[in-house]
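[recover] target loaded
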């Protein structure tokens, strides 16, 4: 085991992103040490440093970020029996230095790790954890933490919502693509998504039955949704959660329905309709049981069966050194329809 390893980190508040050596961690009881082969980037990785997220900022520096982890178990802590050295796993990290992913080694709870299925690569599963957790929580956590849909974890619960419409705003986002697939697995129909129409064919291949042009005004999108179904749309998931998309979602949402958002509510909500803020953090108190069951017991089988496909990816060059450029591209909003992935072990 190395005494130190390389990590990409922010040295100080508003400071630059640099690669340095840090001490390699020791797994505690119930934990595993993971040698990270692939990690993907998410907007929160730069926002929490530059603009804050939900009013939360990085406070302790130097700070390692990144929360999508795929790699090999390097060492197991006391009490861990389900994993051994060399097992291939993926999981969602945490925004603490010993549990973040922009480094060559990290620590995770064994209860929150999933085995990488034989049909997927490190890169493919590295694109999953954050968007997987976010979409699963938004759809399947109990109200008021999610939409309260029954999770499709068994053959009996898959297809349970046949004939029930759902609207997913931002279908081409990384979260939106997962949400469409889960909606299909749950049986929803029609599955209406908004997106740039250049993504229509891909989103329909994932399970969307209708793709509406995201650039259309709210009034037009309301009318088009009514032409698609005369049933009340009581489930809406706004994966973008800008003021404009929240306005559209609330307008389409039927009385008595719930809309899940991933950012703070930004619109007035009429009586009889409800906005739910879905927080996809792994250790958020209301998520712990739901997400431990997802990762530890459920998701590997779903992936092995091909019921869910990971998002498209682009691999960044130069290991951890390439993350800074990827973060700048996300900040400039030039990434669409794919996830950026880095290989920490390829750092010079």
């Amino acid at each position: 085991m190395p005494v130190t390893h390389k990590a990409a980190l922010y040295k100080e508040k508003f400071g630059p992103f640099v690669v340095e050596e840090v001490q390699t961690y020791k797994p505690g009881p119930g934990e595993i040490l993971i040698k990270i082969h692939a990690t993907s980037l998410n907007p929160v990785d730069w926002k929490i440093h530059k603009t804050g997220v939900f009013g939360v900022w990085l406070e302790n520096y130097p700070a390692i970020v990144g929360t999508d982890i795929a790699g090999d178990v390097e060492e197991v802590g006391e009490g861990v029996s389900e994993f051994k050295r060399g097992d291939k796993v993926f999981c969602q990290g945490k925004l603490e230095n010993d549990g973040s992913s922009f480094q060559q080694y990290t620590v995770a709870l064994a209860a929150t790790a999933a085995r990488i299925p034989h049909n997927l690569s490190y890169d493919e599963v590295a694109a999953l954890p954050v968007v997987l957790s976010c979409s699963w929580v938004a759809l399947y956590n109990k109200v008021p933490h999610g939409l309260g849909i029954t999770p499709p974890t068994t053959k009996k619960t898959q297809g349970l919502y046949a004939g029930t419409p759902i609207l997913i705003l931002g279908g081409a986002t990384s979260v939106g693509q997962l949400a469409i697939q889960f909606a299909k697995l749950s049986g929803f129909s029609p599955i209406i998504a908004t997106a740039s129409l250049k993504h229509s064919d891909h989103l329909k291949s994932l399970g969307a039955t209708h793709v509406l042009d995201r650039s259309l005004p709210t009034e037009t999108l309301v009318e088009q949704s009514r032409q698609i179904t005369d049933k009340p749309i009581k489930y809406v998931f706004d994966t973008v959660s800008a003021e404009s998309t929240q306005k559209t979602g609330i307008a389409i949402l039927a009385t008595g329905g719930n809309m899940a958002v991933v950012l703070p509510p930004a619109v007035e909500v009429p009586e009889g309709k409800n906005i739910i803020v879905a927080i996809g953090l792994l250790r958020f108190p209301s998520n712990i049981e739901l997400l431990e069951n997802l990762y530890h017991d459920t998701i590997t089988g779903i992936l092995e069966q091909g019921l869910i496909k990971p998002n498209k990816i682009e691999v960044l060059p130069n290991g951890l050194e390439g993350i800074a450029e990827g973060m700048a591209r996300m900040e400039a909003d030039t990434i669409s329809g794919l996830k950026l992935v880095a290989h920490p072990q390829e750092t010079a």
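[recover] notes: The longest helix spans residues 288-304.
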